[in-house]
């Protein structure tokens, strides 16, 4: 055997030993209950983070409609009613909180309508000023 063949044989043996070493390490790691639990938690956290990121990402087929109907609030449970009684008037069943929420939602709707009207006025929608670049005034004659 010449030097090149010996070197190749040594590298093959080294690679086999290295793979055998890592297989035994991974087998030992997989048989350790604490390590398995830690990896399971880590992977579930990663999966949760990925799912949250996907929920926040805009969908290609979704069109934002600021005037779309809002989903109905979830039904109130007895526990939720009791919790809201602590902050409201005793025995009002959370009606005071519902009234405050209704006022907030009405105000939010009014703000969205104002923003939409401003965007139309700046050329971002149909109507007066449509087609002009935002922030640019019409050229004056003369």
Q: SSE layout and pairings?
A:
Elements: H1 3-31, H2 33-56, H3 78-87, H4 95-121
What is the structure about, briefly put?
Helix content is 63%, strand content 0%.
Structure write-up:
This protein is elongated. It has helices at residues 3-31, 33-56, 78-87, 95-121. 63% of the residues lie in helices and 0% in strands. Residues 127-142 have low confidence and may be disordered. The protein has 142 residues and is an all-alpha fold.
Task: Provide the descriptors you would attach to this structure in a database record.
single chain, 142 residues, mainly alpha, elongated, disordered C terminus
Classify the beta-strand content into a percent band: under 5%
The largest sheet, given as strand count, sense and whether it forms a barrel, is: none
State the total count of DSSP E strands. Answer: 0
Radius of gyration: 33 Å
From the helix content, strand content and strand pairing, which structural class follows?
mainly alpha
Count of alpha and pi helical runs? 4
What's the order of the H and E elements? HHHH
What is the end-to-end distance? 97 Å
Give the low-confidence spans: 127-142
Helix content: 55-70%
Please tell me what the overall shape is. Answer: elongated
Average pLDDT, rounded to a whole number, is: 75
């Amino acid at each position: 055997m010449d030097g090149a063949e010996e070197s190749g044989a040594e590298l093959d043996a080294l690679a086999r030993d290295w793979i055998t070493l890592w297989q035994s390490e991974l087998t030992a790691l997989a048989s350790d209950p604490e390590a398995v639990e830690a990896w399971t938690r880590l992977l579930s956290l990663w999966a949760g983070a990925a799912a949250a990121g996907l929920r926040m990402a805009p969908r290609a087929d979704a069109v934002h409609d600021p005037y779309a109907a809002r989903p109905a609030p979830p039904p109130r449970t007895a526990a939720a009613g009791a919790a809201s009684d602590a902050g409201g008037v005793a025995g009002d069943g959370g009606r005071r909180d519902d009234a405050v929420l209704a006022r907030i939602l009405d105000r939010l709707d009014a703000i969205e309508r104002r923003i939409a009207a401003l965007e139309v006025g700046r050329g971002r929608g149909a109507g007066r000023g449509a087609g002009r670049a935002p922030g640019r005034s019409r050229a004056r004659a003369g």
